[in-house]
Amino acid sequence: MKTALKDNYEGIYSLMLTPYFEDKSIDYKTYEEYTEWQVQQGVAHLFAVCGSSEMAQLTLDERIKLAELTIRHKGDATVVATANMEDDFNAQIEEVKKMSATGVDGIVFTTKGMGDREDELVSYIRKLKSYTSLPVFMYEFPGAKPHLISGHTYGRLVKECGICGIKDTTCSIEQIGDKIKEKGNSCVIQANMPYLYDAFVLGARGVMATPTSCGGAFFQRFYEAFVSGDLKLAKQRYHEIILLDDSIDSGFNNSAKYLVQLQGIKGMRPINRGPNTLSPARMRSIRAFHDWCVVNNLMQ
Hints:
47% helix; globular
């Protein structure tokens, strides 16, 4: 069961990883293969140019190209992408225009370090949103602190700016609940796995989380079970997601890239543009988790 973006903004948004060659230039061919693999996981949406994509380490041209390739290989999925990573506001305006022109179905704005400045953030988003006709989502991106916003601030963004949803990264069930109370017709989209099930009970209906980068099918199974009313099965699927989350927690995003490689995308090397590397012991642990998933028909 997939959910069209234009319907209610609910569903699973799988985060996209960026594959690199050994010299840390982008392997676009592998990215195309990976995008098709992500679609095959059965998710409704893809989140190109996100934190897991290492968007802060990418140039504007690289971000635009990755969005364009995601669109080209998206199949029946919809695509959203971050569009306010540039520093200067005028540069952000051009970024929004360029990203909108790629054919993405929705635009994502980070809180841009204004999480504790409500009036300033609402004014900023209202102005920036005027440069696109696409649905706009908020993202509490940890790369620009303070990034977390209150439920009241989110409610204003929904009412005054027409925001369609938010990737909540508070990791607090109280703060998640505060946003859900203020969500109106928008969708509160979860990034925190320990509270995933609890957040859905409260009214969250979307996921944008790091494990979707390497296990979207886990989340699609959970989503379908929950919205069908089979809460016993949904809780089982939630437990499987927790195991997936724990398996990649150390060494992310290289850990996720290695798990994708084990599932058949050979060009997805476990390297990124940061200093992180995977030790042989971590790789062995991830292989053991993958083998367990294969035996239990959870992964290829």
